[in-house]
Specification:
The longest helix is centred in the first third of the chain and has 29 residues. This protein has one domain. A hairpin with a 2-residue loop joins strand 1 and strand 2. Helices cover 80% and strands 1% of the residues. It is an all-alpha fold. It is globular.
């Protein structure tokens, strides 16, 4: 690799480093794995390097899930130290969320890149609307004591999260709040749930992307190892900072920050589909 090629890759590397810092803070602040930032950022970076749009979205989603593993662990540990992690809910959710995520990861190869973008955008808008208007609490609040409802919710959250390339916080947090958890407890528990989603989804994307054509160099299925290392290290380092910020904000403020964040990300994804 000559100097010209190395210089051409510098914006990509710097972009990934910035993505790592921001996604790490977001993971701790909002209880998300950072995927809502990583997916569009990585997708844009790979598109600028000339990779096919369909492959780019799958690599962005799959790599995002892999990156969420260390980020989620660091975020969950930080929240656990503050007593904001519900182990009972965690034990109830994990087996079913892992199953849903793995199936979603295996099926991802059946969908085009634009389909994955549309899923991402629509779900971001629905989740933001739910946070603002709390319709999920009205529909599901009375079911908070039902183990079956928890298990079904976990499966659905896992499946959709794998197609979005997120750690599930955007879905898990409002669901747990609807079931009666405080915002801080929902954020903390969501961070731990995100680790289970990320591990299962990563395996699914490795399998579904094995042998796919047009992948960036150093990819394992749909997981790009260069992006994985650069973003994951910085995201894991900055996740505790986000967790500390979360505990300085009141619950109402945290909800509106979360909603605004999702609307911006959803608009970004929808614009890509329409512009393409």
């Amino acid at each position: 690799m000559d100097w010209t090629t190395l210089i051409a890759y510098w914006p990509f590397v710097v972009g990934l480093m910035v993505t790592g810092v921001v996604s790490g803070i977001a993971a701790g602040l909002l209880g998300i794995g950072g995927g809502a930032i990583i997916v569009p950022a990585l997708s844009n970076a790979l598109l600028l390097l000339g990779y096919d749009a369909d492959v780019v979205q799958h690599v962005a989603v799959g790599t995002s899930l892999a990156i969420i593993i260390p980020t989620g662990i660091m975020s969950a540990l930080a929240h656990h130290k503050r007593g904001a992690l519900d182990l009972n809910v965690l034990r109830l959710w994990v087996p079913f969320i892992v199953t849903g995520t793995f199936i979603g990861g295996l099926m991802a190869g059946l969908f085009s890149g634009d389909v994955l973008r549309i899923v991402f955008a629509i779900m971001a808008f629905v989740i933001a609307a739910n946070i603002i208007f709390a319709f999920q609490t009205k529909l599901m609040g009375h079911l908070h004591g039902s183990s079956l409802t928890h298990r079904i919710s976990a499966f659905v959250v896992g499946y959709i999260s794998s197609l979005m390339g997120i750690g599930g916080g955007s879905l898990t947090v409002p669901t747990l709040v609807a079931f009666g958890a405080t915002m801080h407890a929902a954020v903390g528990t969501s961070a731990a749930v995100g680790v289970a989603i990320a591990i299962s989804g990563t395996l699914g994307f490795i399998i579904s992307g094995w042998g796919a054509g047009g992948l960036p160099p150093l990819s394992l299925g749909y997981i790009n190892l260069v992006a994985l290392v650069l973003v994951a290290v910085l995201a894991a380092l900055f996740a505790p900072l986000g967790a500390a910020l979360a505990h300085r904000l009141d619950q109402k403020t945290l909800k509106y920050v979360f909603a605004a964040f999702l609307i911006v990300v959803g608009l970004n994804m929808l614009w890509k589909v329409l512009a393409g």
